[in-house]
Amino acid sequence: MYATDSRHISNLMSKVSMIALILFSMFTHIAILGFNSPPSYAYSPCNCVIFAMDDIADYGSNKVQLATMDYFISKNLPFTASIVVSKLANSSDLDVFHKVREGLDRNLFEIAIHGYGHIDHSL
Description:
single chain, 123 residues, alpha/beta, 2 domains, three-stranded parallel sheet, 3 helices, 46% helix
């Protein structure tokens, strides 16, 4: 009985995660290309959204980084990749490095430097 409940919960969580990802993608797409709502600030209205991803590196959970960058490339949308210099193109898995390069080659990505190394200043 518990194994069935566990599988059911796992299946439900998988579906909830997929729905959350789809909703996030739709929101991002609409926010960048869609609504013509007035800006909430009083200067230089551009009716735009800037999307930046921090800690871009060739280690850790790079499937999420790759999927996010793939989305922006597929929609021909701009993206800022904030890289950790010592952690990009410095491992045997260069998928993230090549994806950043693809975005740069297509003139969609802008590079921001997060730093040479990732330092946790809260410590």
